[in-house]
């Protein structure tokens, strides 16, 4: 339970320190990991004992019934120390597990995969020819497809043979079966191949990135880890990164026939400057669905393709005056009867679910109303029921619902706050993770009648730890936007032992990016912002126009002008807060990371009469430096929208800096390149502006590793104490 400011009790005497967050893990919450529903829908499995055990549980009782795999008891196992992830084959006679993961980018990695046979209790490597990527069982469980060195392979479990099926893969040139950097980052997936539903074929996307320009990054020796071979001369890591308006990969879709050992190219049209963000098999192994998106990302088509001939036709088409939201791609779902598909659309002004037949005709809107749905969990053909989450009760809270074919709706998550669920395969049970701003996650098992079966994790131990500290609660408020009529969602945390007769420094924390959400009734953890309230700061968070959960017009009003309305709103909100008698109007700061760094650096320049201090971490300083898919979705190309790119680029506001600015960036940031910070720093230097800067050797966009996080946040606190407090 959080303690209201001024109500500290004698027992709550411990002081927060930065070590609690970045070294000791004092406030780390617990979860339930690796949940997999088994085929019978009556049992599920969980990864336990720090990845060493897979334990089987009963949904009905919530009790453990068997240990399916224990690495410490497998005879002769000296290679697999822990399991990172796992999957069952079709009849659950084997497991495919991954270990020794080496990250590549945000979602991609190489790993060592092993096959565990339940019958003979043997654990064998998938391949002896080098680490693999994306290993996936075929639907019939007889084969495993995987990727290595930009090529696709198939392993036959019965004959223990490995077959290579593509041969032109080459680093920085051709990728078969995995997305290139920009697809992975902005279309949010890491596997670009799919098994046919009967295992007879594999469809895959081929990326030709030979015309995409390379971006080089110097890699120094560094520490934690140290790259010894770079001790004297740095190496250069160069990879394909299409910036806004530049050439993208040329993509094509192919189907490999397992029996015939032949590969056929699918017809996706003559236009080559386009995107294929997803491929999905229908229930028919001869019919492949291909999502085709134009480069402007305002026209989406679902192509229904004959996998045997490559011939395609348009099954579904949607156009939008702004852009197509990327969540539509994941929500394409083909029903088991082979007669229908489900898709999400914002055509009503809100994100909703729709049912279509296989001729492309809309049958009905499954959900409707002045609210957005968030997640589509699936369709139960037995109950004829759809499962989804939405913000219909409040943009600050998310609940999960079931709605049947007649439109009768049932709420499945009775606890107030932010809800996520994991369903059993037959939808008879579900595991609900719920939290709110004052309470860490509680994980409960429910049956289909919304009756709780068992609490799997209540984080009671963390609750008891929190009781020893005086923690400022979040107060949810609304603040007028710059237009004077739109109300923005916000929260504020006042100092411990708050005195309304004193004036405190204010730090605004925000992210502000399109369709993002920082202000919500969910557990954000006890973190460094709580430490600041202990040290006498007021902290506020604001979601400006352009953020999530409030309909399409609110979400997309920043189109073609990223940064303008968001910074206008942040400046207006800061002014509104600074008028409060308990806030020192001369000590108003703002900080943010990534898009939030773009905003904080822009706000201290554009709002130099309001903000005296800003921290910008890994900021975009001009969107010409950022990637094609993200930037053009919201801004079109620099050639089409020069004004939109230039007017709110921090680079072009450098001469307006009056206050204190701290810039921090990792030199190996593959996402927002350190180029952004270097170029802004040079503009500031030539404008005669003083600023502080922290550069982090070999660190990526998240800037962590070894002692890095503790040093970084200590720098933040010292900077604020010097300039704001």
What does this structure look like?
- It comes from Odoribacter laneus YIT 12061.
- InterPro entries: AB_hydrolase_fold, Pept_S9_AS, Peptidase_S9_cat, Peptidase_S9B_N, Serine_Prot_S9B/DPPIV.
- The protein has twelve helices and 43 strands.
- The chain is mainly beta.
- It has a domain at 18-22 and 474-723: Rossmann fold, CATH 3.40.50.
- An eight-stranded mixed sheet has the order 36-37-39-38-40-41-42-43, with helices on both faces. Strands 13, 14, 15, 18 and 19 form a five-stranded antiparallel sheet that branches. It has a four-stranded antiparallel sheet with strand order 1-2-3-4, with no helix packed on it.
- It is globular.
Helix content: 10-25%
Overall average residue pLDDT? 96
Strand content: 35-45%
Please summarize the sheet with the most strands.
8 strands, mixed
* SS summary, helix count: 12
Low-confidence stretches: 3-10
Architecture per CATH nomenclature, i.e. the level-2 architecture of the domain at 18-22 and 474-723: 3-Layer(aba) Sandwich
How many distinct beta strands?
A: 43
Rg for CA atoms: 26 Å
The CATH class designation of the domain at 18-22 and 474-723 is Alpha Beta
The CATH fourth-level homologous superfamily of the domain at 18-22 and 474-723: Alpha/Beta hydrolase fold, catalytic domain
């Amino acid at each position: 339970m959080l303690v209201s400011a001024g109500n500290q009790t004698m027992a709550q005497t411990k002081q927060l320190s930065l070590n609690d967050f970045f070294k000791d893990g004092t406030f780390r919450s617990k979860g339930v990991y690796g949940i997999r529903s088994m085929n019978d829908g009556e049992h599920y499995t969980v990864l336990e004992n720090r990845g060493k055990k897979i334990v089987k549980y009963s949904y009905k009782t919530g009790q453990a019934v068997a240990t399916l795999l224990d690495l410490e008891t497998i005879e002769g196992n000296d290679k697999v120390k822990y399991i990172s992830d796992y999957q069952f084959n079709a009849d659950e006679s084997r497991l495919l597990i991954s270990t020794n993961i080496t990250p590549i980018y945000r979602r991609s990695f190489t790993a060592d995969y092993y096959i565990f046979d339940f019958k003979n209790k043997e654990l064998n490597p998938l391949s002896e020819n080098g680490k693999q990527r994306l290993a996936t069982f075929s639907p019939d469980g007889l084969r495993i497809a995987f990727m290595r060195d930009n090529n696709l392979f198939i392993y036959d479990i019965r004959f223990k043979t490995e077959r290579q099926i593509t041969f032109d893969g080459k680093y920085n040139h051709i990728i078969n079966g995995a997305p290139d950097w920009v697809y992975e980052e902005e279309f949010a997936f890491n596997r670009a191949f799919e098994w046919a539903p009967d295992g007879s074929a594999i469809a895959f996307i081929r990326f030709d990135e030979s015309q995409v320009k390379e971006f080089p990054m110097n890699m120094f020796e560094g520490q934690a880890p140290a790259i010894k071979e770079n001790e004297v001369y740095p190496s250069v890591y160069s990879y394909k990164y299409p910036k806004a308006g530049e050439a993208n990969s040329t993509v094509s879709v192919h189907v490999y026939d397992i029996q015939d050992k032949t590969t056929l190219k699918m017809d996706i049209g003559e236009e080559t400057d386009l995107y294929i963000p997803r491929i999905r098999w229908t229930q028919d192994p001869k019919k492949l669905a291909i999502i085709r998106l134009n480069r402007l990302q305002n026209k989406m088509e679902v192509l229904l393709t004959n996998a045997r001939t490559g011939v395609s036709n348009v099954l579904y088409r949607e156009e939008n005056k702004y852009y197509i939201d990327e969540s539509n791609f994941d929500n394409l779902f083909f029903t088991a009867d082979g007669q229908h598909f489900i898709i999400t659309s914002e055509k009503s002004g809100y994100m909703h679910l729709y049912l279509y037949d296989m001729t492309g005709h809309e049958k009905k809107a499954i959900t409707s109303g002045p609210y957005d749905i968030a997640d589509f969990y699936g369709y139960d053909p037995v109950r004829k029921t759809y499962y989804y989450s939405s913000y219909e009760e409040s943009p600050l809270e998310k609940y999960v619902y079931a709605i049947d074919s007649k439109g009768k709706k049932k709420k499945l998550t009775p606890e107030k706050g932010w809800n996520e669920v994991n369903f059993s395969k037959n939808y008879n049970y579900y595991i609900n993770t719920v939290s709110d701003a004052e309470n860490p996650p509680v994980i409960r098992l429910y049956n289909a009648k919304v009756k709780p079966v068992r609490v799997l994790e209540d984080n009671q131990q963390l609750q008891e730890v929190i009781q020893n500290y005086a923690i400022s609660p979040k107060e949810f408020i609304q603040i007028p936007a710059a237009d004077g009529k739109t109300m923005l969602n916000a929260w504020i945390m006042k100092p411990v032992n708050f005195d309304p007769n004193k004036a405190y420094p204010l730090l605004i924390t925000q992210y502000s990016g399109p369709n993002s959400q920082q202000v919500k009734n969910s557990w954000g953890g006890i973190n460094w912002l709580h430490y600041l309230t202990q040290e006498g700061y007021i902290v506020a968070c604001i979601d400006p126009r352009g953020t999530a959960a409030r309909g399409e017009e609110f979400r997309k009003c920043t189109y073609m002008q990223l940064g303008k309305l968001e910074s206008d709103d942040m400046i207006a909100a800061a002014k509104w807060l600074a008028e409060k008698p308990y806030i020192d109007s001369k000590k108003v700061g703002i900080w943010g990371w990534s898009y939030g760094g773009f905003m904080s650096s822009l706000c201290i320049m554009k709002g130099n009469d309001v903000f005296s201090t800003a921290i910008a971490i890994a900021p975009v300083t001009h969107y010409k430096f950022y990637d094609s898919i993200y930037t053009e979705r919201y801004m079109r190309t620099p050639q089409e929208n020069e004004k939109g790119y230039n007017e709110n680029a921090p680079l072009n506001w450098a001469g307006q800096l009056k206050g204190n600015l701290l810039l921090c960036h990792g030199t190996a940031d593959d996402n927002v390149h350190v180029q952004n910070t270097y170029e802004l720093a040079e503009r500031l230097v030539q404008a005669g502006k003083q600023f502080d800067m922290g550069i982090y050797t070999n660190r990526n966009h998240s800037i962590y590793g070894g002692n890095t996080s503790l040093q970084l946040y200590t720098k933040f606190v010292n900077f604020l104490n010097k300039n704001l407090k």
